[in-house]
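As the next step, I selected for study one protein, both as residues and as discrete backbone shape codes, as given directly below:
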Amino acid sequence: ICENGVTVVETAGRNPEPHMPLFKEYGVKVVHKCTSVRHALKSEKVGVDAVSVDGFECAGHPGEDDIPNLVLLPAAARVLKIPMLASGGIGTGAQMAACLALGADGINMGTRFLASKEAPVHENMKRAIAEASELDTALIFRPLKNTARVYKNAVATKVNEIEREKGQDMKFEYIVDLVAGVKGKAALTSGEIDGGIWTSGIVQGLIDSYPSCAEIIDDIISECTGTINQRLAEIMKS
């Protein structure tokens, strides 16, 4: 990363502190993704330049606290001194306006860009996201304290069935073949919806098309500006 001149890096999953001296030496800005206020504060302490605060709505790993952004964002904003991006469950301009109102300095989107013209995944996946509702995700690995939100397909449903059946005796080895990363990666390429597990957030319920990234960004900025300048202004007048 450093040798190739990358100027901004997002870290996640583990404490970024061991890598900070090298990033600082090369002038790399570090954004650390956090799912809790305590992790955001620790990230600030070890010297990251900004944090991406990830609410329970997100795709992938939302942590184990289950705090949605309506509470998590302002809770983090009230104690942080570094910039904060809102992440998880965001896909519209009105939501961006809400995140800014809650103390965020910007937004971070994953699922919304997965359903875009340029995303390097099969069109079947993009279509599945556009046709899905906010109810069509599954939380897996909860008994293992490593919760992940994925698209609710046959594989995710089977994993949940095994987790319920095993209860407190649940072990990763019972599902390892079902959730193999190579299967999920292959599914994204082949377009086989039930080929493996793949992540998608509940924001899919707000997505009904997969235009270009430029169109997505333009629409979100336009709607965000309109929400702030028109919708909120109307409310204040009334």
Residues 213-237 form the longest helix (25 residues).
